[in-house]
Amino acid sequence: MSDKEPLLIVKNIKKRFLVGKREVNVLKGVNLEIDPGDFIIIIGPSGSGKTTLLNTILGLEKPDEGEIIISGKNIYSMDEDKRAYFRREKFGVVYQQSNWIKSLNVIDNVAFPLSISGLSPKTIRRKAKEILYLFNFDKFSKYRPSELSGGEQQKLSVCRALISDPPIILADEPTGNLDSITADDLMYDLRTLNVESKKTMIMVTHNPDYERYATKFVCMEDGVIKSVKVKRKNLLQTEKSIKKTVNISKYSFWMKLWFLLKLSFKNFKKNKMRTLLTSGGVALSIGFIAFLVSLSYGFQNLSTEGIKKMEAFQMLDVDTGKSKIANIDDEAIKKISNIFGVEKVYPSVSVAGDFTFHDKKINGIIYGRDIETLKIERPRIVAGESFSSDTSEEVILNIVLAKKLGMSSPGSIVGQNIEVNTIIRPELLENGGENFKSDNRQYKIVGLVEEGNAPYVYTPLGSLKKMGIVNYSEAKVKTTTPDNIDRIKSLIERMGFKASSIKDTVDQANQFFGIFRMILVVFGIIAIAVSCVGMFNTLTISLIEKTREIGVMKSMGATKKDVRNIFILEALFVGVIGGLSGVALSYLLGEFFNTSIYALARSTGNEPVKIFIFPPNLLIFSVLLSLLISILTGIYPARRASKISALDALRYE
Hints:
Structural class: alpha/beta
Shape: rod-shaped
Strand content: 15-25%
Low-confidence stretches: 235-250
Number of strands: 20
């Protein structure tokens, strides 16, 4: 900058306001040149436009006409956020009323203009300590500004204005609320900064006695400058440049984000009870969903996962279904056995029968099985043993039949003989037809099983085939792996048979539990909606409480995005802490029940089971859900906060 070029030019500034339906001209073509090192004191009666001019210079009050040119740049050719960056570099501000961010202590309030720029915490801390030490305030660094006197707070405002080493200091009635001694002390400090630190001062006041401090004394009246009195030669008129500030483009985005994160957390802690109650609402809703869904996973695991570990999950049950043509005979068994992926086919027969023992006759079912098929089905033999061969005249009774036959001690029936009248359906015989066939024989009872609620017996398949049975009632098909089930099932169905597997039941169970989980989620969403209302209410109250602070932050160079991010991050703290707490609570509660059930099972000799299962995707979903509701709930208050005019916010009471 040449020695003749002004640092700041106020060029034909005009500003009008609407008061009701009346238009008021506050600034009526103001022109002023300010040189580097000037101490400009602007004086005038209330309503003369002094503060409006100051706010226009600061970039907070866009003029209707005219330009504010600083270091050769018209600041109103920039958008709002760029003006905020420019304001952060060029200006330090001291207000009549000390404006503080209540959640921050002294050192953090002083450091705010640097923190919002994204400098490293180490650099910020060092600069803040230096400036506090210079003004003998280092001993108050951990205090709250509200714990200091009015004069101390004003000096602290000067510290904050100087922290970023700006070339221009704006002071709006800085001594208005101070006694005369404290006011003179502050004016001395400002003059010292002007002389020794070569800061350009622009000050608005009602006190004409301060003329002695000025290099230029400007009198305003009715929106115009009436006079400019040059008191002494400008301190820096002979210098060709002024000290430049740090380029904000070099600041770290991540450092700024870290500061905003810390500020949001301090805001979160400032109203602990309110925010904890709000987070508690989120925790209950998220925990409710996680707890109930984990319960559904547990039930699903009990009903399906245990089956998957069994050999039965490799099995297909094959029968003729409603077909009148297809028969499961030896040829069909051979064809099925030749399908790739089939390990073994186990044919079986089911027919009706009458059982006579010591003059007692009971109707029941006869299951024709060979020894290998019994090994697959694994009936629990509680007395005796299995067949001696696949063609022996032997039977295994179930306990229900034994009791119906009059056995007071069912196990004692093993080894005795029983008369069995087998009633064979026509479709199982070689020539078919319409007539049933009966075959009456004596069988030896070799074993006893406990399953079933209806009377039945097992008999070797070979003994039934001796009666002329050539077609089977059904067959079990064992595959080499469970992965082959669907393909082999499809091929068998193409042969005209009906095929089913336990996998079908599992799939249906999974589908049921999927629907069940969705129903639970719907109830959970209702709970979330209630917590969202509470969260939204908390953030709206926070917005009202921090309206003035928003103006303070914007006057010090915070952008709309910075303000929006503060509120979004505050919402995230409430939501995420609530979400994590809810997940942790539901997990601990679930594990408590699992442990209790495990202990009960051990004490009663039963197999322990897990009722509550928390898969990783459930936990991740719960946390992501809390993030989502935080963002959605915080968007509106954050947008409102970012759009608040800095001046309107500063005037807010």
